[in-house]
Amino acid sequence: MTRWFVPADAAACSVGADEVASALVAEGHRVVRTGSRGLLWLEPLVECEPAPGEPRIGWGNVTAELVTQGLTPDLPGYLGAIEELQALRQQERWVFERVGVIDPLDPADFIGHGGTAGLRAALAASPQEVVQQIIDSGLRGRGGAGFPAGVKWRTVLQARPARRQGEPAHAPVHKYVCVNADEGDSGTFADRMLIEGDPFTLLEGMAIAAHAVGADLGIVYLRSEYPRAISVLERAIDIARDRGWLGRGILGSALDFDVEVRVGAGSYVCGEETAMLESIEGRRGMVRAKPPLPAVAGLFGTPTVINNVLTMASVPSILARGAEQYAGLGRGRSQGTCVFQLAGNVARGGIYEMPFGISAAELVHELGGGTRSGRPVRAVQVGGPLGAYLRADRLDVAMSYEDLAAAGAMLGHGGVVVFDDTVDMAEQARFAMEFCAEESCGKCTPCRIGAVRGVEVIDRIRAGVRPQENTELLRDLCEVMADGSLCAMGGLTPMPVLSALDGFAEDFADTTRGA
Amino acid sequence: MRPMATTLAKQVRPWSPEAGRTSIADIVGTPGPVLRCLQRIQQDFGYVPADAVPLIADACNVSRAEVHGVLTFYSDLRTTPPPAVPVRLCGAEACQATGARQLRAAWLDACQQDPALAEATGVNQSVACLGNCALGPAAMVDGHLIGRATVQRILQMVADLGAAKVLQR
User: Fold this and answer.
1) Cβ of A189 and B134 within 8 Å?
2) How far apart are CA A13 and CA A398, in angstroms?
3) pTM of structure
C-alpha cells in the first residue's frame, strides 16, 4: 500500500506541514508523520512510498492546495527520489540517520532502522569497555566546549555514587546522566530536530551512558520554547518504558535506569552546565564555580555526566558501527561528524551532518547556495551569539574545533548564521553586549556590569563621542570580561564584539559620520 | 482584519490557595521542587499570583525570599494574568539576518494602531530564540510556531486561535 510521509517537525509545521498532512488525509491517503530531513528550505517536504520497499519520491514546498490538485511528477516542486538528492548524498549521517525517515514514536520503525543495536552492544560489554570505545571514537562535547566525552565518562565511572545533598544517611546513593537540551544559541536547532524526529536515539544514548558510568537516574533539561519537542520526548519516554528500554532491567540486563524531562523557564544562561544543574535543583540559574567538576559533584552533589543532545545521540551509532570508523572521519583532533546548522539569510538552510573539515565557504556558498535575499554574503556568525563574525572573504577556514580557534572563532554548537550586505555590524556588536546584559546570571562582576557598560561604550562610539578613546576602552573592557568572567557567557561575549570591531571597522566609523 | 476577541481568559482554573496547594501536591516531596512548583502554578492558573509565593515557601520548607528569587530570575514566569493569545517575536541573530527588526517594528506599529490587538496579544513577549533559524523571521502565537513570519501571517494566526478560544467556551 502506498504511504505518504509528512514531517511533524516544528519548523516544517511553521510553514504549513500540518495543513498539508490534513489535506493528504482528506484525500484518503495513508499518512505517516516523521521528523524533518533537515532540508528546511524545501519544507513542507512531502514524500511518497509507492509500494513497500520502493524508494521514496518527494515534492518540496507543498501546500494544501497542491495536494488537492494532485501531486504529480510534472509539478515544479517535484524532487524525484529523496535519497538521491545531492543535499542528502553529500552528507555523512550518523546522528541524523533516522531523522525524517521514521515515525519518531514507532518503536518497530526505530528497531527496523537499526535502533537499540548500540545499546545491545554496550550491555554486552563492561562499563570500562564502553568508556574506552567512546574515548577511542574521539567524540567530543557538541554543546560547544568540545571536551572529550569518554574522558568525562571515565571520571564519573571512577567516582563513587553519593546521596543527594540534604537527604538522610539511609537514603539511596545515585549517579546522574543529564542531557543538556537547553539549545539557546541562535542559529541552532539540531537538538530540537533530533528530539522531535528520533527521540529514542537520545534515550538509547542515555541508557548506554548510564551503563558506562553506573548511573541510575537521567534527566533531560529541555527548553520551554520547544513545546513540540517536550511532548514528543515525554511520549517517547513512556513508550521506551513499555518496551523495556528504560526502567528496571533494561533489555533483560541488570541495568536499572529511568529518565525524566525537566522544562526550562526562558533563561539562556541555563544552557551553561552548572547553571543548568542549579535550575534542575529548582533554584535561580546561577553559575557554579568549578571545581568541583559536575563529574565529581554535580546534580544534588552526586557524580553527574552532562552531555549535549548531539553528543549523547552520537553514542548509539558509535557503539553499533564501531569507534574506529567514527574516529576515521574528520580532521585532526576533531573526529567524527558534526551536525552543522545553516541558518539566517541563506538560500538552502537546514541540517548538514558532515565530517569535520569542510570549509565555511563550502558550507555557506556550495551547500547553502549563498543568501536567501540574493544579495552578497557579508558576514557569517559561527557558534551562536557568543561566536565570532567571520568576514565573507575569510570563509576559507576549515570547520573544526582547532581551525576555528586558530582563526579567533569557535565552533560552538555548530550553528552557522549568514548575513547579507545590509547588516550593520556595529549594531550586531551592540546586540551581543545587550544580550549578555539581559541574560547574565549576575554572579560575577565582569559579566554583570561589563555587558551593561559595553552597550554604553558602543553607543558612544557609534554616536561619535571620542571614538578612538572609547574603542580603546571597549577593547580593555572585552579583555576584562574574557579573562575575568566565571563562565562562557561573559567570557565569550567579547568574541562577537571584537570580531565585528576588527573585521568590520568601517561600520563603527560609518555610524560615527552618520551621527 | 476580522474582529478580535479581546477579553478571553486562558483556559485555566481560577486561583485559590487551596487549589494552589492541590496543584503542587505531587511536586513538593521531590528533590529541588521550587521552580517546578512555580511552573505548575503558572500552567494551571495562567500566572503566579502573589500569595502563591508564601504558599510554595511553606510547602517546600524554604524562605519566601528563595521563592521570590526563583520567580524573578526566569523570564517565562509571570505575576499577572497572560494575554488571550500571547505573541512572541524572535529577536536573535539568525532572525535579525532575515528581517526580524523590521518585522518587530511593523508589528509594534500594528499593535499601536489597534489597542484591542495589543491587549489580546500582549504586544510582544521577547524571546531569545525559537529554534526556527533557517526559516526566519520566527514568531510564536500562543505556542504555535510561524516561519518566514509576516505581520499578515501573525494576524491570521491570532485570529484563528482567538476564534478557536471563543468556540471552546
Assistant:
1) yes
2) 33
3) 0.96
